């Protein structure tokens, strides 16, 4: 049996990402959700560079592979480092 890697959980950061107030992909302000670019099941954690605020539609597209992970990473990299959660 392969041991599970412990996940880093940061609810404060997730709340801050959601508080951006718009979908970082399409700019919608409706039904915002936080998306893990690298899924938690694949070892992704709650870190600023792995989280993006998406509307429900873009979130579904991201999970369906219709929005590339590289596109989401570019958006996160351009976002800047305005989320200080220490």
TrEMBL record:
CDD domains in the record: HNHc (cd00085)
InterPro entries found in the cross-reference section: HNH, HNH_nuc
Signal peptide range in chain numbering: none
Entry-linked Pfam families: HNH (PF01844)
One term of GO molecular function: nucleic acid binding
HNH nuclease domain: residues covered: 12-60
Chain segments annotated as transmembrane: none
Protein name (record): HNH nuclease domain-containing protein
Organism: bioreactor metagenome
Taxonomic lineage from the root: unclassified sequences, metagenomes, ecological metagenomes
